[in-house]
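Example: Disease resistance R13L4/SHOC-2-like LRR domain-containing protein.
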Amino acid sequence: MSRLTTLDLSFNIFNGTIPGAVGQLSELKHLQLRGNNFEGSIPWEIGNLSNLETLDISEMEIFELATIPEELGKLKDLKELRIIQLKLIGHIPETFSSLSSIEYMDLSINSLNGSLPHSKLSLSKDSQKKTQEIDDWKFIPFRSTNLRESEILLNLTEENLIGSGGSGNVYRIAVRENRSHVAVKRISNDKNLTTIWKNSFLQNFRH
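Written out as structure tokens, the predicted fold is:
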């Protein structure tokens, strides 16, 4: 096990807590735990996985009142981070400013608050300006998708509603090509559809 480079336990029925011993898999590069019944908290020991490039701990709804361990900021080689729909609270750790290799991050469907830490993420000047101007919606780098307007409209349902405000509702739309999500906002005052092409889109939905 010490030479294991990929551990994918996605979409099983594992329960209990995620064992801290996973942090001893020193050669691990890819850790996928999405869609299980784990509970408790994200083990801080994952921060010891110095070779880790992708981490997905998502869609486990019984992590209530847990926070993101600051030790994850030590993952210098981390390129993709998905921590989605865990009901996490608190702030995004300041240590995330040290994630110098990060290319993709999705922290959506949690109850996190505050701002993204200043980091080396390669945001465009326009994105940086929007991040500063819109305090309640914190954007991060994204990848474009091939979603068609018809697919988006079909998914504007009550089931996918994740937020609302004075100008319209926000919906969570699945992107099958890369198993991620985008936030789509429908502007109520002019019937136009505005897509917010940010895979890791919101820290909360008040605006």
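The radius of gyration is 17 Å.
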